[in-house]
Amino acid sequence: MIQKNKLLTLEPFNSYYLKSIWKDGFSSKDPEWAKWNAPYFDDYTPYSTFSNFEHSSIVEYLLSDSCKSICVEKRAIGMVSKNWIDKSTRWLEIGIVIYNSNFWHGGIGTQALKMWINEIFTCYPELEHIGLTTWSGNKRMMHLAEKIGLKKEAQIRKVRYFQGKYYDSVKYGVLRDEWHMQYKN
């Protein structure tokens, strides 16, 4: 567990941060984070070298304006993301992954997701809602969403089939005024 007083920042990805993410998240065959990151997606690929990783579509995505690196003491340990479900109707969803499990259970995800939501509401003053979708097998993500004040808005039952079992898709969200009432800046 990491100490809570360590400096946490959200930074645009660069080659230094990408090397840490490759090592922690994409160099092994079966990383722990991938088991929790919506395992109904069968899209994890390990990369045996940083060069192979560097030329992947994952890196293209990480370098886009949709992602930022979660850094602890200037070391990349994960990422936050934003994706437009429908930009014309201002429907945006966010995500978070901490690739290095040494940084789990220490409040880093809570702090990073709060920072990300604040940043998005600041950058998009017209945006009234931010959503987050997970699956019922990821109790930690559900807890995190509720802990920081996102409300469960939908639970679509038994639509995610994984390893012989059905799971629900669970959608959370927060409105701008709810967020600002809870976390006055």
TrEMBL record:
Pfam families: Acetyltransf_3. It comes from the Bacteria. InterPro entries: Acyl_CoA_acyltransferase (IPR016181), GNAT_dom (IPR000182). Transmembrane segments: none annotated. Residues 9-151 form the N-acetyltransferase domain. This is GNAT family N-acetyltransferase. It comes from Lactobacillus kitasatonis.
